[in-house]
Amino acid sequence: MKAHPKKQSLSEVNQSVRVPKNASFLTTLRAFLGPGALVAVGYMDPGNWITSVVGGASYKYLLLSVVLLSSLIAMQLQQMAGKLGIVSRQDLAQATAAHLPKGLRYLLFIVIELALMATDLAEVIGSGIALHLLFGWPLLFSIFITILDVFLLLSIMKLGFRKIEAIVSTLILTILVILFT
């Protein structure tokens, strides 16, 4: 089974990092800074930090083995996904579409969408609580503002992925400045 080239997933960002030939190290680094910033956000997510702090305070060193094991598994999965992309020039979704039967693809789609909804729900509610605590806004209004923020970012994606990378990089630099002041 071959994936249809016309139906390529995320075609607007697929292989979108243009690496200049015979470029200097700094030029090549600059080409990958935006995508790197997007990946780094997952590791800087305050929700992950607070979960780690509370879990560590509750379970002490017992949780450390779970954190170590899950981090090693995550690194292994990222390394395997990177190898898949380098060798086949496909992301995981494209490889899945090319090699799995249609029924299994739809089942995986449903499971992944449910997992995404569960994690996004926690992020939206957490951001709403943060806005409520910071500004004293009603909780429902704070959650509504967070939902609007998500739609705003999705609409900015229409302007190009580099714009999203610039916004995320600016937010990362803001966090860096706050931490060092």
Automatic annotation (TrEMBL):
Keywords for the protein's UniProt record, in alphabetical order: Membrane, Transmembrane, Transmembrane helix, Transport
GO biological process assignments: iron ion transmembrane transport
Membrane topology according to the record: Multi-pass membrane protein
Segments traversing the membrane: 23-43, 49-74, 106-129, 135-157, 164-180
GO annotations of cellular component type: plasma membrane
Compartment annotation: Membrane
GO molecular function terms noted in the UniProt entry: cadmium ion transmembrane transporter activity; manganese ion transmembrane transporter activity
Pfam families registered for this protein in UniProt: Nramp
Main location: membrane
The name this protein goes by in its record: NRAMP family manganese (Mn2+) transporter
